[in-house]
Amino acid sequence: MTLTRPAAVTRPATAARPEKKWRIRLRRDRSLLLMTLPAVALLAVFAYAPMFGLVTAFQSYDIYSGFWYSPFVGFDNFERLLTDSIFWHALSNTLVISAVQLVLYFPVPIALALVFNEVTNARIRSFVQSVVYLPHFFSWVLVVTVFQEMLGGAGALNTMLRRHGWATWDIMTNPDAFKYLVTAQAVWKEAGWGIIVFLAALAAIDQNLYEAAAADGAGRWRRLWHITLPGMRGVIMLMLVLRLGNALTVGFEQMLIQRQAVGRDASEVLDTFAYYYGVVNNNFSYGAAAGLFKGVLSLILVLVANKLAHAFGEDGLYRK
Predict the structure, then answer these.
(1) Residue pair 168/162 in contact by the 8 Å Cβ criterion
(2) Which residues of 236-260 are buried (b: 16+ CB within 10 A; e: fewer)?
(3) Could you tell me which residues are beta bridge partners of residue 72?
(4) Which of 61, 232, 280, 284 is most enclosed, with most CB atoms within 10 A?
């Protein structure tokens, strides 16, 4: 009789305790994290730390008493704000200028990106891009000065009109044309810089799609409509959401410089209102209330715009 040795019972080896995932990622990305620390520090110091000052919107703030000893007044500043006709005029101006810029400015970087995408000569493309990028680095003082030299009462346009015996038009001091003037200034200054994001979106589109469409007989316009624009739709929706979130910020310095030329009625926006009726008049609580109202309204606009992005099947700022 042959005795068979029973098979050895295999026991699972005690696995080494796996290291936590966050430690692995921390070691892997430590160089990138170190690179972001200066940006995070700047954001914390200049963006988040000043938010503590919003407490003054609920106080009768006195600069000598400080945050801790200024009397608390609750929502009195907001009640006064909502019954102030000048505030509502500033809000109305802000919305009108923002709507004009949304219609006339927002499509310009998209159109420029599409045009640059068709330029095949690398040297010409690089030169033109450098030219349209350059105004982004100009201050608003310089931008307004350039427009004054071109469109002002003694500018190039009116000088030419006088030589031909035609009536002059001083656009720089016309309150009715002010919203179009500031939009033109914003387009000249920022549209070239704004194409960078859209050029990146165009570069991400699979070129095989264009080759397949061309092989099927699709012309340039059909490729643009069926491939290029759908490929850019996600980025366009994202930039639109960001634009709507920033709709109530229409350029404080730009308005401040041209305030005397066109008058308060045309140039008063929420930022200048908070400055003049808050800082200049030493009524810091009132200015803080106006700023907080603007921030809350901007947040609502971002959330609504993001919902619309989700309705169109795009991610927006965050996925649904």
Answers:
(1) yes
(2) bbbbbbebbbebbebbeebbbbbbe
(3) 59
(4) 61
